[in-house]
Amino acid sequence: MGGHGHPYSPAELELPGFVPQRLSQGEILAPFLAASLLVVLAVWLISGRCGGRLSRTDRSLMCWWAFTGLTHIVLAGSFLFFTPDFFSKENPSYFDELFKEYSKGDSRYAARDTVILALEVITIGFKGPASLLAVYAIATRKSYSYILQFAACLCQLYGCLVYFTTASLAGFNFWASPFYFWAYFVGANSPWVVIPTLVATRSWKKISARSIPS
Amino acid sequence: MGGHGHPYSPAELELPGFVPQRLSQGEILAPFLAASLLVVLAVWLISGRCGGRLSRTDRSLMCWWAFTGLTHIVLAGSFLFFTPDFFSKENPSYFDELFKEYSKGDSRYAARDTVILALEVITIGFKGPASLLAVYAIATRKSYSYILQFAACLCQLYGCLVYFTTASLAGFNFWASPFYFWAYFVGANSPWVVIPTLVATRSWKKISARSIPS
Prior knowledge:
Membrane topology (chains A, B): Multi-pass membrane protein
Protein name (chains A, B): EXPERA domain-containing protein
Domain EXPERA (chains A, B): 57-200
Oligomer: homodimer
Largest sheet of chain A: none
Number of strands of chain A: 0
Family (chains A, B): Belongs to the EBP family.
Transmembrane segments (chains A, B): 28-50, 62-82, 115-139, 146-167, 179-200
């Protein structure tokens, strides 16, 4: 822990009243991974029974959109509404501890940086609801299914681009160590670069495959 | 002019070596409007002759994409590459003066705020080229025309959302007076909210009008 009473970088970051983290990395990651697995499993099983002739690709996409939609809403929601002073709470909740842990990879969360707040507002206001709507749109074969998935992917990619570009321009020194840089800043965010790129490309091709009259 | 030698808000903003603006508002706006009108007129006339059976809507959209694409590339380009120290240049160019004038509506430009820089990087890297590609795609009736226009619109809207949300969260005090708030911060940006909303809605409807096989 640095001279400023917290484990984050840069050390000059002021976090008055910082309460040290109590849960370990494993105690934070395990419930998140277990809950995610439960969501994916539930959507996979339900989509197999109710949907009729949904392809495996469609069912996999439903799992992804349910997982990412709930992650967007639960994490952005708890960051914005329930844990604004998460680093100084005397009796921290699971989510307070989760954001303390993630801040080791990007201390702009602990600092409540304007860019992070703006991105989380857009995440809970648009990306989360759009992702959950995509689950429904795929299940019911709506005609707007591909364009909706494309829109949600593009917003995720644009959000990541703003997230990484601002970090780069603002000093690129927000991680406590190279481990947290690779594991959290790069690793934990990379699914939201790779998967939206794949899904957006697929949607683009499906939409362009048919010429549409003007 | 405030006590810190510049006309911007907040007055505490430090701009060492600030050189006062020489061109008037009219001298800055007139060339911009004239050049924009010239681009729109040229695209309208050329699209009427070469394109064959392009509808008036398609020709109008080509004018918009040419205008917005060139605006994105020329303004973001001059802000990022040619005028990094625009407020302190002894012999300011037209673009230096333009950004001095616009900074009265949003001093984050003069301050070279991280968010502004990130948005301009994305503007010149993606929005500008995508807009110009849309001119070509409409003219040649490419099958990806609607999805490309939709993507470019969504990026413009997401950019505006980040732009306005971060201003709001960072203090909402970046304009020199209510006039500059309404004329520049709101007025000059509103076309990039209104028109992309209309074009994105149209593209969404065109794409959703035909159900696409999975």
